[in-house]
């Protein structure tokens, strides 16, 4: 009975294949970790921007205008923030829809819902009318998601109460 024993070339080939698989797995793990880190950092930076002194002042001005059923440029700046979130971060898959929803849902639904009529009353150029299209596409989905998971559609009183709280920023 003869016993097969691989030669040095076969052993080298086996170890090379194992090393290549390990390297591939390592690269995938680093790629996943880098992507996860980027997502967390992006979310934290957006949250920091949302709570910055300048944005708080903008939000307060926007809330006052919306409660008075008026449009103010600060409303546009708040909507721009959410358009960036919806378009670049969620649609661009930098952030998951779930993370963005969890962090910004109530703020987004508050400003978006109350701004519909004042924004419609503006005499916007055709290119400007597309300015918040990603936000306009995302918000009904977020509201439906909230309802599907046990929440309720926000009422006008809910939105007004939220904006009243924003005045205290």
Protein described:
The protein has 169 residues and is mostly helical. It has one domain. The protein is 78% helix and 0% strand. It has seven helices and no strands. Helix 2 (53-67) packs across helix 4 (97-120) and helix 3 crosses helix 6. The model has no long low-confidence stretch (mean pLDDT 88).
Which word captures the global form? elongated
Question: Could you tell me the number of beta strands?
Answer: 0
Q: How many discrete structural domains?
A: 1
What is the share of helical residues? over 70%
Between the first and last Cα atoms, what is the distance in angstroms?
87 Å
- Give the helix tally: 7
Taking all Cα atoms into account, the compactness measure Rg is: 25 Å
Q: How is the main sheet built?
A: none
The parts where pLDDT drops under 50 for at least 5 residues are none
SSE sequence, one letter per element: HHHHHHH
SS strand fraction = under 5%
Please, what is the average pLDDT?
A: 88
Structural class: mainly alpha
Summarize the structure.
The chain is mainly α. It has helices spanning 8-50, 53-67, 73-91, 97-120, 126-129, 133-148, 156-166. It has one domain.
List its salient traits:
169 residues; mainly alpha; elongated
What's the SSE blueprint?
Layout: H1 8-50, H2 53-67, H3 73-91, H4 97-120, H5 126-129, H6 133-148, H7 156-166
């Amino acid at each position: 009975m003869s016993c097969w024993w691989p030669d040095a070339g076969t052993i080298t080939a086996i170890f090379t294949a194992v090393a290549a698989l390990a390297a591939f797995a390592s690269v995938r793990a680093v790629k996943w970790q880098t992507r996860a880190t980027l997502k967390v950092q992006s979310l934290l930076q957006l949250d920091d921007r949302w709570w910055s002194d300048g944005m708080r002042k903008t939000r307060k001005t926007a809330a006052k205008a919306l409660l008075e059923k008026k449009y103010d440029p600060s409303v546009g700046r708040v909507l721009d923030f959410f358009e960036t979130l919806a378009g670049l971060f969620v649609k661009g898959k930098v952030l998951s829809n779930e993370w963005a929803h969890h962090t910004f849902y109530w703020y987004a639904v508050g400003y978006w819902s109350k701004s519909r009529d004042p924004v419609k009353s503006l005499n916007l150029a055709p290119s400007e009318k597309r300015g918040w299209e990603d936000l306009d596409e995302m918000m009904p989905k977020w509201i439906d998601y909230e309802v599907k998971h046990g929440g309720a559609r926000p009422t006008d009183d809910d939105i007004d109460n939220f904006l009243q709280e924003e005045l205290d920023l």
